TrEMBL record, chain A:
Classification via PANTHER family: HIGH-AFFINITY BRANCHED-CHAIN AMINO ACID TRANSPORT ATP-BINDING PROTEIN LIVF
Keywords: Amino-acid transport, ATP-binding, Nucleotide-binding, Transport
All copies of domain ABC transporter, residue ranges: 5-235
Species whose genome carries this gene: Labrys monachus
Family from the record: Belongs to the ABC transporter superfamily.
Name listed for the protein in its UniProt record: Branched-chain amino acid transport system ATP-binding protein
GO terms of molecular function: ATP binding
Pfam families, alphabetized: ABC_tran (PF00005)
InterPro entries per record: AAA+_ATPase (IPR003593), ABC_transporter-like_ATP-bd (IPR003439), ABC_transporter-like_CS (IPR017871), BCAA_Transport_ATP-bd_LivF (IPR052156), P-loop_NTPase (IPR027417)
Automatic annotation (TrEMBL), chain B:
Domain of life of the native organism: Bacteria
UniProt lineage: Bacteria, Pseudomonadati, Pseudomonadota, Alphaproteobacteria, Hyphomicrobiales
Main localization category: membrane
Subcellular location: Cell membrane
Keyword Cell membrane: yes
Organism: Labrys monachus
TM regions (residue ranges): 6-33, 45-62, 68-87, 96-117, 144-161, 190-211, 223-252, 264-283
Protein name: Branched-subunit amino acid ABC-type transport system permease component
Amino acid sequence: MTALLTMSSISGGYGDADILHDLSMEVGAREIVAIIGPNGAGKSTAMKSIFGLLTIRSGTIVVDGTDITGWAPSRIVRSGICYVPQVANVFYDMTVHENFEMGAFLRNGDYSDALERVYEMFPDMKAKQKALAGSLSGGQRQMVAIGRALMLDPKVLLLDEPTAGLSPKYMEQIFQTCRDIRNTGVALVLVEQHAKQALRFADRGYVLAAGRNRCDGTGVDLLNNRFIAEMFLGA
Amino acid sequence: MDISSFINFFLIPGIILGSIYALGAIGVTLVYAIMRHGHFAHGDLATFGAFMVLLFSASSGLSPYAALPIAAVAAGLMAIAIDWLFYTHLRTLPKIITTISSLGVALMLRAVVQIFWGVNTLSYETGIARPENWFGLRIKPHEVVTVVMVIGLVVALEIFLRHSKWGKAMRAMSDNPDLASLCGIDNRKVIALTWMLVGALCAASGFFLGLNTQVKSLMGWNILLPTFAAAILGGVGRIEGAILGGLIVGICEEMSVLVIRSEYKVLSGFVILLLALLIRPTGLFRGKVL
Ligand SMILES: Nc1ncnc2c1ncn2[C@@H]1O[C@H](COP(=O)(O)OP(=O)(O)OP(=O)(O)O)[C@@H](O)[C@H]1O
Ligand SMILES: [Mg+2]
């Protein structure tokens, strides 16, 4: 497997103290990878480190053959990777439509095809396109956030807890959206609090604890692993 | 006092002054919306712009009106240069540090103006400015120009922010700078663009102030307080608030001479600022960012 996204031995953090220690992971083309771990394990920090939002002290991040370590976020998006943060992932004071337009900021020329695809994926948003994103419900905001990130046609999409705080119905809808996105040829990295559901649905998973790799494997393997089940799945 | 003298002596001058404050307050609001700090150099940047109009019109023989666009660009470039020299390396520190350093920049700008033009009172050469009598309303031609151009500038700015790609990028960055950079928006470019707009607005407010009063090195410093009062009264971050705030402060200031001596009329800006902070610190329109 040639990896689309490779994180090799990343150490780094927000200030002097490292939060991530020697963290590595790999995402192949059209793969859904789940990242699970207890609160504060460094899952979000790992996502931010890929996107240049914190200081990486050592290690490298390679996207599709390009070493992007140390690049500014506004440059990293050009390498074909998009990211939906865990919190504050929409522009609250802008309309749904403007959020999508901002997602397409780097596209020159006509992007109506991308807009159309996003509205097709989230038909509810079509009726809401003039509404301010800040006025939407949590689930609707996740749709805007994911739609925004899809506007650049990324090869890899990072989603940090897209189902946090959502009802089971919305959660299932988001998972279904993830499958649809994968079927268009995009690889997904999914940080999930709902570890069991996520592992059931992902191809592979990584378990993080205290900023380190704890273990990894296929979703099924991790689900069947006694140790993991006891530690993280509340079984 | 009958209605026409109220309009002629208080309302019209108040609207003129208020439009000038409004332009300044919009700039203050833009700085806050994008960079999140206060900007004490705002008044002196307006002074700089006013003197640039003087420089360009005197050196080229253009009318001051024609020199304004050039002066606006010059003031915008000056603002970008100031940002690059004095504010960029403070960006990650607490914003109060940048705010205070802008006070230092204000003093420097004024010193530069005084070195070149001295401390005398000057004025623009715009020919005669006799009031026209329109149905009993005495309005000077440059007052009409001031109001029309201020309205034009505000409408243009609003269209830019609502409909253009980079205007939306400014709103996006004002809303959430990290997310904006995740969309590929280069925050540094947005900051430079913001300073260009702020510098141009300062030049316009300085020019209109000079047009309706005089051109002198303290002119901008003198409108700093009412400008801030207008921005805070309207709700920082709100352009429509800055306009309303500017008009209220301007009209109140002109009307204050009914109760206090005219030397003290700038006090009214101070009183409005105090009242706004005490009663409704979020401003008339709830403050937000762009
Ligand atoms: N902006 C920040 N500045 C400093 N430290 C931070 C910051 N954000 C997170 N941390 C620290 O980094 C560690 C990992 O946090 P992170 O948000 O990555 O965890 P997480 O696995 O995403 O947790 P959760 O499941 O709660 O989202 C925590 O100890 C946290 O205190
Ligand atoms: Mg997290």
